[in-house]
Design a protein that fits this description.
P-loop_NTPase; globular; Rossmann fold; Sulfotransferase family protein
């Protein structure tokens, strides 16, 4: 990938230690060089001219950001072990009243079998990493999600509730995009990712990164306990593509 004169894009996938890496990345740039928004609606509302002076982009922009820039940026992404990412994702929804699935998750209850039996919740956490990497923006505008969503959460729902194109196709798309990343890391080795990125871009060697979002406030029914074998099996079933993608990410680090 090109460096676009030093432009960097952190392709952030939810619940993969993004806060940790974002804080460190922002420290490498002047404040005016950082594109502060991190959601698709903000990007879609930003004029092309206003993107030119920015050198750091970090957020949930998917493949839409590179399409908006005149030269391909250096891209970096982080993947997380799929079971852990899914449990963290569900915990975030459980703790966040403003999340578009918060009430639905609480209605489903605390048992993972019941949660994953709900078709909307199941789709929302199925192969999320592959879909954030492999999804291509629709040519005819976004599809209507499975639930009523508006405002800033609409773009998130577009990714999380979009129809899955089939595991084989999704696997090919996501693996191709992951292989094209400038730097790939995994959550459990975030310091190694920072070191490789600093070496590539000529930055000072980083200190150990603290996990800024490792211990979010508030509890969920799945935090701090060991998953039962049946629960692990259920999580594996909704993350088969993500499991393959995570193994690829480990080989690329």
């Amino acid at each position: 990938m090109g460096d676009a004169g030093g432009t960097l894009y952190f392709w952030h996938i939810p619940k993969t230690a993004g806060t940790t890496l974002t804080q460190w990345l922002e420290a490498q740039y002047r404040p005016e060089e950082v594109y502060r928004p991190h959601l698709l609606p903000d990007l879609r509302g930003t004029a092309a001219q206003d993107l030119l002076a920015k050198r750091l982009f970090r957020g949930h922009f998917g493949s839409e950001l590179p399409r908006r820039l005149p030269v391909s940026p250096t891209t970096v992404t982080v993947l997380r072990e799929p079971r852990a990412r899914t449990v963290s994702h569900l915990g975030h929804i459980w703790r966040t009243p403003d999340h578009y699935l918060h009430r639905r998750l609480h209605a489903a209850g605390e048992r993972l079998p019941d949660v994953l039996a709900d078709p909307v919740l199941r789709r929302a956490v199925s192969d999320v990493q592959a879909r954030y990497l492999g999804r291509t923006p629709p040519r005819r505008g976004p599809r209507r999600p499975l639930v009523t969503v508006s405002g800033q959460l609409l773009a998130q729902a577009e990714y999380e509730l979009a129809p899955v194109p089939g595991r084989a196709r999704l696997r090919r798309r996501a693996a191709r995009r992951l292989g094209g990343m400038g730097v790939v890391g995994v959550t459990d080795r975030i310091d190694d990712l920072a070191y490789r990125l600093a070496t590539r871009l000529g930055w000072s060697e980083p200190d150990d990164l603290s996990r800024a979002n490792a211990a979010p406030s508030g509890a969920s029914p799945w935090s701090g306990r060991r998953l039962q074998p049946a629960e692990r099996s259920l999580l594996d079933d909704v993350n088969r593509v993500d499991a393959d993608l995570y193994r690829l990410a480990q080989r690329l680090t």
